[in-house]
Amino acid sequence: MSVREIPLFIDGKPVRSESSEWRDVVNPATQEVVSRVPFATEAEVERAVASAKDAFREWRKVSLAQRMRIMLKFQALVREHTKELAALITEEHGKTLPDAEGEVGRGLEVIEHACSITSLQLGEIAENAAGGVNVYSLNQPLGVGAGITAFNFPVMLPCFMFPLAIATGNTFILKPSEQDPSSTMRLVELAHEAGIPAGVLNVVHGGPDVANMICDHPDIKAVSFIGSTHVGTHIYSRAGAAGKRVQSMMGAKNHCVIMPDANRSQAINNMIGSAFGAAGQRCMANSVLVLVGKAREWLPEIIEKSKNLKVGPGIQRDADLGPLVSPQALKRVVGLIDKGEKEGATLALDGRGCTVDGYPEGNFVGPTIFTNVKPEMTIYKEEVFGPVLCVVEVDTLDDAIEFINRNPNGNGTSIFTGSGWAARRFENDIDVGQVGINVPIPVPVAFFSFTGSRGSKLGDLGPNGKQAIQFWTQTKTVTARWYEPDNLSDEVNTTISM
Known about the structure:
Elements: E1 4-5, E2 8-10, E3 13-15, E4 22-26, E5 33-38, H1 42-59, H2 64-80, H3 82-93, H4 97-114, H5 117-120, E6 124-130, E7 133-141, E8 144-148, H6 156-159, H7 162-167, E9 171-175, H8 182-193, E10 201-203, H9 208-216, E11 220-226, H10 229-241, E12 245-249, E13 254-258, H11 264-276, E14 286-292, H12 299-307, H13 327-342, E15 346-349, E16 368-371, H14 378-381, E17 388-394, H15 397-406, E18 409-410, E19 412-416, H16 420-429, E20 434-437, E21 453-454, E22 457-458, H17 465-471, E23 473-480
Parallel strand pairs: 1-5, 8-9, 8-11, 9-10, 11-12, 13-14, 13-19, 14-17, 16-17, 19-20
Antiparallel strand pairs: 2-3, 4-5, 6-7, 7-23, 12-22, 15-16, 18-21
Helix pairs in contact: 2-4, 2-8, 3-4, 3-8, 9-10, 11-12
């Protein structure tokens, strides 16, 4: 099998990097090198930003209707190429094909939302606000925007960024994860097939040095980041210090509460899918199960069902979870499981040493469950980002709410219950940005904003929905009066009245 050479994408075309630093991209089920990605040079980043800055002069003048037509064509192309994009995701990330196809679908939602730009980017007007004066506001693009994405959703996360940024009239620099860039690059190619002009969407690859160049560059006006708390805090601080608008969606420790009055089979099946799908490599995975009252009696069934999940390469459609993205990720997750045992949690289901026939080199970890987990334990405090579930037992809903609110993160949480009263109490009292009620992964549809909170988010405005329109535009307010040509006056008015 030939190894793909991943290009940069600058000024409307793929560009072979002149960098001396290239990294192998490896299939996590086989360790086969499938592509090579360059770490862009400073000159190449400068070239990409210059292209975006130059393209902004004309792109900002393109009508909302024309931008909408491009987005309509883009969504049609992505829909048409769903299976191709999913296959690239699975090859480099490892998630199962059905999961990868679902990821493309969630990305499509954002592109479809961008197709509504003609009604989203509207200002306001007050006619005759004071003595023949009209006051109106305009929502205008910022200029060059940038996005830095994590590996776990190589199609969906870029879609959380550039479609709405471009639809609102900005140009864009995208730095995808170097761990699985091929599906992102194919997405960018489809965007250009749809009619995005040269220079409006550019791609540079790299690690911390390239991310820092983006944060520091004076011609980049806004930066969107999705990834770990450690990196996200750095991006927010550095880009903010450079005077940029920044949104930083970061780490999580999501809790799923199961009440004893919940639909038992639905609650258990959905919770297991949330915890172990994508091998736990989701920022919205419910990695902590909070069993309330008699729901703790369901634990043996939860363990047994988890034990029966099928682990395999992502290309096997009947696999429930695939490999972790890299050997480094495997080592880290196994190390955290080891630490959980040493710190006194009960290992009720051990996924270490998981083997898959025909794939001896795969980065596989099976479903793992810890019970008797305490808040001070590392497996509870850290985001494992693997198929590891921590189980906590409490007596009442109030205890569950108090326990969750003590956690510093606020990305997402879910409750399974048959009681409207309990659900309403939970949604009102829980201090978490995204809440699911009988929904295991509470990522809202794309015409609502992604609203993580507390330690999971820096910046006032999140991706998607109305908040994304606000993030990628700036408001200009105009106060205007027009005089009749023959309305002459010698009077000088030194007051501030209109």
